[in-house]
């Protein structure tokens, strides 16, 4: 039996993750409160006057700023405030929609960023969708067995948080999810259509507890499995609620 074993959201893209126990999905939309905000840098092409989806290279990412991977987040939905935690910085609670709070956040997070690389300069959002890496409003689905296979290839413990997935499934063979492209997944009360595999970047090399690059995840993927992919992107085609323990049917 395939079942949901974990649910995660990432309120600010590449700036922390938060475990949840249930989520209500809407057709054609990203997971609620997932990548609702993203941090722009000094060379971004994101236009705050006409906000629309742009590619991930326009935002601060763990790919070029490894220490960001060590952030954890806690969202208060009612007040739209986020508490970020990092082992090197302590805690900060702020509202990404408040200009003064954004300046406090930028001053707090900048010490994590190498001075000779892109530096954070603002926070972006787009009405009605999260700023996922994909141009379509995606939800990422991960396989526990595939994670175990990568961990075995590295011969060392590996935190699943490195993959920054939304929905984790157990009860599959490793890499079975790659056979689901263009198929539907009935998960709890929702239906998702699998669109594509997720090509991975150096963000996954960084430890989610401190942001230190300490695992050759990409080398393991390429060397042992002949690809650089982990997880799949899916799109919600029928809304509904998904909770921990829900059964999954591949249609």
Structure report:
- With 251 residues, this protein is mostly beta strands.
- Helices cover 12% and strands 32% of the residues.
- It folds into 2 domains: 2-29 and 134-250, PK beta-barrel domain-like (M1 Pyruvate Kinase, Domain 3, Beta Barrel); 38-124, no CATH class.
- It contains 3 helices and 15 strands.
- It has a 7-stranded mixed barrel. A 3-stranded antiparallel sheet has the order 5-6-7, covered by helices on one side. Strands 3-14 form a two-stranded antiparallel ribbon.
- A hairpin with a 2-residue loop joins strand 11 and strand 12.
- It starts with a strand and ends with a strand.
Please state how the strands of the largest beta sheet are arranged side by side. Answer: 1-10-9-13-12-11-15
Distance between the termini: 14 Å
Radius of gyration: 18 Å
Q: Overall 3D geometry?
A: globular
Largest sheet at a glance?
Answer: 7 strands, mixed, barrel
- Tell me the CATH superfamily of the largest domain: PK beta-barrel domain-like
Determine the mean pLDDT: 98
Helix-strand makeup class: mainly beta
Given as residue ranges, the uncertain stretches (5+ residues, pLDDT < 50) are none
Which terms would index this structure?
3-stranded antiparallel beta sheet; mainly beta; 32% strand; 251 residues; 2 domains; M1 Pyruvate Kinase, Domain 3; 7-stranded mixed β-barrel
Note the topology:
Layout: E1 2-9, E2 18-20, E3 22-25, E4 38-41, E5 72-76, E6 81-86, E7 90-94, H1 99-109, E8 120-124, E9 139-143, H2 144-154, E10 167-170, E11 184-187, E12 190-199, H3 217-225, E13 229-238, E14 240-243, E15 247-250
Parallel strand pairs: 9-10
Antiparallel strand pairs: 1-2, 1-10, 1-15, 3-14, 4-8, 5-6, 6-7, 9-13, 11-12, 11-15, 12-13
InterPro entries: MoCF_Sase_C, MOCOS_middle, MOSC_domain, Pyrv_Knase-like_insert_dom_sf
GO molecular function: catalytic activity; molybdenum ion binding; pyridoxal phosphate binding
Domain MOSC: 110-251
């Amino acid at each position: 039996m395939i079942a949901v074993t974990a649910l995660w959201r990432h309120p600010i893209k590449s700036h922390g993750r938060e475990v949840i126990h249930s989520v209500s999905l809407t057709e054609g939309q990203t997971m609620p409160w997932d990548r609702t905000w993203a941090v722009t840098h000094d060379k971004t092409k994101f236009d705050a006057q006409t906000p629309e989806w742009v590619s991930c290279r326009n935002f601060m990412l763990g790919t070029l700023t490894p220490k960001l991977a060590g952030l954890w987040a806690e969202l208060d939905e009612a007040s739209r405030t986020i508490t970020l935690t990092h082992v090197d910085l302590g805690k900060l609670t702020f509202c990404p929609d408040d200009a003064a709070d954004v300046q406090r956040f930028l001053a707090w997070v900048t010490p994590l960023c190498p001075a000779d690389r892109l530096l954070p300069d603002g926070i972006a959002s787009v009405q009605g969708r999260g700023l996922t890496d994909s141009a379509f409003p995606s939800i990422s689905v991960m396989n526990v067995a595939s994670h175990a296979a990568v961990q075995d290839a590295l011969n060392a413990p590996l935190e699943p948080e490195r993959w920054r997935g939304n929905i984790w499934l157990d009860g599959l063979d490793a890499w079975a999810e790659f056979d689901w492209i263009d198929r539907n997944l009935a998960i709890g009360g929702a239906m998702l259509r699998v669109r594509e595999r997720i090509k991975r970047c150096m963000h996954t090399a960084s430890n989610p507890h401190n942001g230190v690059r300490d695992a050759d995840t990409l080398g393991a993927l390429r060397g042992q499995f002949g690809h650089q992919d982990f997880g799949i992107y899916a799109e919600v085609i029928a809304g509904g609620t998904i909770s921990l323990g829900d059964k999954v049917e591949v249609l």
